[in-house]
Known about the structure:
The chain is of the alpha/beta class. Helices cover 49% and strands 11% of the residues. It has 23 helices and 14 strands. The strands form three sheets. It has a six-stranded mixed beta sheet, sandwiched between helices. A five-stranded mixed beta sheet has the order 1-4-3-2-5, covered by helices on one side. The longest helix is centred in the N-terminal third of the chain and has 29 residues, at 103-131. The radius of gyration is 41 Å and the shape is elongated. It binds adenosine-5'-diphosphate (ADP), magnesium ion and zinc ion. Magnesium ion (MG) is lined by residues 203-204, 256, 301.
Amino acid sequence: MWLALGILLLAWVWGPLSGAREGARISYTEFRQQLERGNVQEVVISGEEIVGELETPANLPAQGRAADDRRFVTYVPSIGDEQLMADLRAQNVEVHTEPERGMSWLFLLLNVLPFLLLIWLGFLLMSRMRSQGQNVFSMGKSRAKTYQPSAERTVFSDVAGSAGAKGELEEVVEFLRSPQRFQKLGGEIPRGILLVGPPGTGKTLLARAVAGEANVPFYSITGSDFMEMLVGVGASRVRDLFREAKQNAPGIIFIDELDSIGRRRGAGLGGGHDEREQTLNQLLSEMDGFDTTHGVLVMAATNRPDILDPALLRPGRFDRQVVVDLPTMADRAKILAIHARNKPMAPDVELEEVARSTPGFSGAALKNLLNEAALLAARGHKDMIARRDIDDARDKILMGLERENLALTDEEIRMLAYHEGGHALLAAILPEADPLHKVTIVPRGRAMGVTEQLPERDKYVYSRAYMLDRLAVMMGGRAAEDLVFDQSTSGAENDLKQATRLARKMVMDWGMSERLGHMAVSGNTEHVFLGEDLGHTREYSEATAREIDTEVKVILEQAYDRALRLLDQHRVGLDAIADALVESEVISGTKVFELLGLGGNGGRPEPREAARRLQ
Length: 615
Ligand code: ADP
Ligand code: MG
Ligand code: ZN
């Protein structure tokens, strides 16, 4: 390619120059003058070029003077010179003509070269596609990657927690390794296992662990890999995948993100997606078509089991569902331990405490947390990750970046401090409230300040008393503003939204209001692939709806009144917290207890204990 370009370039530069070598380049006017004087002996005309010889050397004013002064070169003007031939004849000049020389092969090259270039590009593309194993003619080939056992093999010990799911999969691996043991007792290998759980809980990781431990061929593919611009490709890829797996049985096929092809057929809005449905149909029939003696196990993962086609879930297909749930506190500690393996931690870091402070975090979120902490520590040129880094990383993940240059007036800062102080005080003194972790008035993300509470353990059951205390804490910000400044700010927007949502749930879902009693009125949630809200259908009357609103309002008002009353009672403590916040922006839960005269034991206070003493 470079050679061709080089030649072209050379021809360009050299072509016109080559003429000059045959003689001195003179102007056309000069040539005409010489001709008039009868000084021209002979000329060779080819194309526009005229090369000729003078009779006597003239002192030509020429560029690129030639050795032989009698030879010259000039060019016929492109507008033509009709007189030229006549004049030449009149002067008895010997005229030779030649076909346009030189230019012709250049011309050819210029014309052919683009085509050569295109052909060459085409070949390049073809060969590249072939090397990636996707010839244009093999669109329908399965795109599954066969798992190659390598140095970084994932094994079950890399997966922390999710004991139930792990046990289930370990059993399957056992089955594939020594099927006789199970078959002796008439047991059959399950055909399909569906891993179900929220994103980031380690479903893909578990599948990789199965691949690493099973010692059988493992074909892994993502649901969307079946999709292509061309119709019918998906279905033929499914067919190809199963054919290959059966040939090399026993083996495992793993389809990640199954929901992208496994959605319920013919439902939802906007009509069906033909290609997707064909692919799903093919998958369904393939899963029926092989019997368990083949020893091909289909595993799949999804975080939306609710939108899967029911036909996928019936016995004989994905008959086993393994739920991979968000990790419990103990599991979080184990996951953190796994991801802390390669990260030097300062002695003040307690993974149990980190686990306690991260309710609702998935495995992936925990991994990300430690990574963010490591980056923060590295930014500070530290050798180890400190407790502070992890705390900052968590705040950053939960609430966004600190907003540094917000210009707030002193008055606004005081209001913020009282707002957060109100939340904090109530969180500290209410018996059922989650223990206070820290309070800040550093704006982060969309929040102007934060009062953080951390549950002592993961909660799955909430009492009414807990809800009421929680509502009072949420109302604490607004109540403090009203109490101290006698006016409200927009800062309570999020508090009010959350409180309203909670109160509504208490009334509608949990039967916790007096007037409606023990009735769930939330209606059924039918998913139409649009997220929950649109799918809600109301199953109660207008009158009930009005009553719900009244009840919600009553609960919220009571919570507010309670917050206001308590803050008024503890006004001295509230002032102390607000002052401390204005001064240092961030204060810990322990500090709040101290300011309220509750802690005193220096270490972590026992909030329940303290609160009881105060009330
Ligand atoms: P999913 O497929 O469920 O969305 P992944 O398996 O892709 O989640 O998890 C993402 C990452 O999070 C994993 O690669 C792993 O590093 C980490 N992770 C998730 N769950 C666990 C766990 N139980 N133990 C260890 N690491 C985990
Ligand atoms: Mg995944
Ligand atoms: Zn607030």
